[in-house]
From TrEMBL:
Main location per the UniProt record: cytoplasm
Catalytic activity: ATP + protein L-histidine = ADP + protein N-phospho-L-histidine
Histidine kinase domain location: 406-603
Keywords: 4Fe-4S, ATP-binding, Cytoplasm, Iron, Iron-sulfur, Kinase, Membrane, Metal-binding, Nucleotide-binding, Phosphoprotein, Transferase, Transmembrane, Transmembrane helix, Two-component regulatory system
EC number, as in UniProt: 2.7.13.3
Protein species of origin: Algoriphagus antarcticus
Organism domain of life: Bacteria
InterPro entries linked to this entry: HATPase_C_sf (IPR036890), HATPase_dom (IPR003594), His_kinase_dom (IPR005467), NarX-like_N (IPR029095), PAS (IPR000014), PAS-assoc_C (IPR000700), PAS-like_dom_sf (IPR035965), Sensor_HK_TwoCompSys (IPR050482)
Gene3D superfamilies: 1.20.5.1930, Histidine kinase-like ATPase, C-terminal domain, PAS domain
Top enzyme category: transferase
Protein's recorded name: Oxygen sensor histidine kinase NreB
PROSITE patterns: HIS_KIN, PAC
Topology with respect to the bilayer: Multi-pass membrane protein
Amino acid sequence: MTGTPRSLDQDTFNRLRRLYIIALGAIAISLIASQILIRKYLKDQENDSRLVNVAGRQRMLSQKLNKEVLLLSHTQSPEATQALSDTIQNTLNRWETAHQTLQLGDESQGFHVENSPEVTKMFEQINPEFEEVADAARNFLFLKSSNSEDSTAIASQLRIIESNANSFLIKMDEIVNQYDHEAKEKVSSLQRLELLITLFTLLVLVGEFLIIFWPSAKAMKASIQELMDAEKKAIQMAKNADILSQSKEKSVRELQALSKAMDQILLFARITPEGYITHIGERFSRLYKAQKFNINAKISDLLSPLENEQLTIDRIITENKKAGWEGEFKTTSQTGEHIWLDVSMIPYHSSEDKSELILICLDITKRKEFMHQVEQLTKESFEEKMHQQKVISRQIIENQENEQNRIAKDIHDGIGQMLTGLKYLLESVDTTDPEKAEVKIIKLKELTSNIIKGVRTATFNLTPPELKDYGIVPALTELTQELSKLTGKDIVLFNKSEFSQRLDSLVEINLYRITQEAINNAIKYAESSHIIVTVSHSQNILSIIVDDNGKGFDKSKLKAKPDEEGGMGLTFMRERVKYINGRLFINSSPNEGTKVTLNIPLT
């Protein structure tokens, strides 16, 4: 009985090698293309962010120019008039420069603009209002600087500015939104393209596995089985010396070819059941930097110098030397480098009826490292989110407690003491003495008025009755008037578009609290003397702007996330805005004031 074992021929090996090179080349090309696209997008995104920033500053300068012209129209002092005129001229120059830059770019600053047809059309629509406001501002400055007494001409220029400024702001908001929309479209396009590249890479990997590794493993397994069958047949044919010699020689040749192929493709080794090396492949020895080794050395000594890892490897070999084993374990090279192996251990009987174990291994170190990195990043992200949530929750509870304590203190120290005084004063009224009784009744009236005022103040701080009865604009009007009286600052509300629509109660209370927080920040921290609250609306958007002339701040130093030291005011504002599906913009620079813009949809 004769048989011929099958092995990997050179043509098959060369074909597999070519396919392997092609697959790796495809993966490399996809990765390079992905990097090129991402880098190009990052460069475009940097220019888009600068464009949005300039557009936002253009809106701020428009409002600043309108505010300063309004202040100059009410200024009588020559010194103040000159100072405001210089400021307006500076603002006008910056406004015109920014408007020009948004359309044509600025070569001196390396700022290139390639506006889309939609944005170009929007600028064509907004340019007439821009020219009207710019010309009216120059005429107004000329009349004020020449001390003209022509009040009609001055009023005419103010009307032109006021009639065009709101239209300009609304169209400028649409331009900013268009810029933001186009930037998001670029992100979406990149994501789709990146998804296609990722799918292509995965398909290449799957194809590489199905076309190269899986058939190669099957062929090797079949070859090993055929070799084992060939050895049995060689023993059976031992009676015939010539046949035995020929079969043995052929088996040796095939075994050498198979060993060479396995040495080049896989981490391959043969060991005794006790764990001593009988053969080790070239790739295996290169991985562990063991070009020269003792043939009688134990495999555990080669795979790791650490005693605990050696004991683990010896235990696996001892327990599974008859049945075989598949699994993963970590090893350590002589240089201290950690290497993870996916190991298949197969029992094998040689021609001399000696038992051996064949080790076929894959280096999965990179895969393990990636898995560890993903687990670490997931853990860190979860812990960070939990920490932020704890900080926000703690601050909310503390603020609620502080507010309750403040209300209780106001009632106890203010209303409570006045009620106690009212009680004692009532008890002391002597109706038999009309003159003294009249004096005490006057005091009773005064004390009663103070109690009513205290109650109104306490309820106003909780929820203003105007908000529930009349809506957001009357409530903000009452808020600005009350705060102006209490602080002595010039706090003014302008309802530019005569907005009077009632909104959902939750939307109105959140709008009120966000505006109240912005005004309080301007009072507490900005050291401002003038605060302008502007309400305007279009068909789809309601806009509330809180603009002050305070010291401003550096936006780069804003806390990105709240912590135990603060930063909760801005966080609460953003949380409230998110709750009502709005958008919040904060524009500020040192010594140039602060502008807080709140936009919410009306549909």
